[in-house]
Amino acid sequence: MDRITGSSAAAPRTPEQRLADVRVRIDAACASAGRDPADVTLIAVGKGMPAERITEILALGVADIGENKAQEASDKAVQIAELAPDLTPRWHFIGQLQRNKARSVAGFASMVHSVDRLALVTALDRAAASRSQPLDVLLQLDLDPDPDPTRGGVDPPDLAALAEAVLGVEHLVLCGVMSVAPPGVDAREAFDRLVGYSQVLQAIQPSAHVVSAGMSGDLEAAISAGATHVRVGTALFGARKLASEHRP
Ligand SMILES: *Cc1c(COP(=O)(O)O)cnc(C)c1O
C-alpha cells in the first residue's frame, strides 16, 4: 500500500489529482491488456469518508459509489441527495450483509456485490419486491484456499447452486461475480481463478458478465485478468482513519 500513499507524502493531493492518478493507472492497465477503458467501471469506495468528500468525487464525474456498511451507506445516500440533488450516483453495496439489513440496502443500492448464501438471496428478493426496478446482484466468491468465514464469500463448489437460487427468484438480476484477493495469495493468480468462475457462471446465465475485482493496491492485476468493475477507496480518498473497522 506504500506504493500508493507514498507518492502523496510530499504535498497533499487534491481530489482532482487523485482521480487523475487512478484514471492513468486504469488506462495503463487497459492498454497493456489490450482492453478498452470504457469497459472498466470505477467504483469510488467511500466507506469511512464523510458525504462531502464523496460528493467532491462525484462532481468530478465518477458515477458509482461503493459502501460496505448498510447504515453508513443509507445515511450517506440521503445526505448526498441533499448536498447534490443533481448527481444521481449508482450505489454499490460491497460489504458483508446481514439479512435484517436487506430492506435498507434494497432501498438505495443499484447493485449488491456480496451475495454469498441462500438466506441472503431470499431476504434480498423479498426486500427488492417493493422497488420499481429489480435489484442487480453479484455472487461473492471466497478465493482463499484456507477459507475464513468472517470474510464472506461462497465456496467455489457452491457457486452453481447459489446462481440457480438467484435465477429462481423474481426481483433479483444475476449480473456476475465479485471477490477480494485473499491475503498472502498472488492477486493476479486469484483474479484469474475468479474469471474462471465467471465463465462457469456465464455458462449458466450468459448475461452475467460482470467481474468486480481489484482495489487500490491490485487494480492492475484485476484489469489484466478481466475485471469489469474496480472498487477503489484509499487511492481516491487517502487513508481511512478507522482502517481496522473498514477492512473488507
Ligand atoms: C474497502 C474496500 C475496497 C477498497 O479498498 P481500498 O484498498 O481502500 O481501495 C474494495 N472492496 C471492498 C469489498 C472493500 O471493503
Summarize the structure.
This protein is an alpha/beta fold and 248 residues long. The protein is built from 10 helices and 8 strands. It has helices at residues 2-5, 15-33, 51-59, 70-83, 102-108, 118-128, 159-167, 187-204, 219-225, 234-237; strands spanning 41-45, 64-67, 90-93, 111-115, 135-140, 172-178, 210-212, 229-232.
Helix-strand layout with pairing:
Layout: H1 2-5, H2 15-33, E1 41-45, H3 51-59, E2 64-67, H4 70-83, E3 90-93, H5 102-108, E4 111-115, H6 118-128, E5 135-140, H7 159-167, E6 172-178, H8 187-204, E7 210-212, H9 219-225, E8 229-232, H10 234-237
Parallel strand pairs: 1-2, 1-8, 2-3, 3-4, 4-5, 5-6, 6-7
Helix pairs in contact: 2-9, 3-4, 4-5, 5-6, 7-8, 8-9
This protein binds pyridoxal-5'-phosphate (PLP).
Pyridoxal-5'-phosphate binds next to strand 8 and helix 10.
Descriptors for this entry?
alpha/beta; eight-stranded parallel beta sheet; 15% strand; globular; binds pyridoxal-5'-phosphate
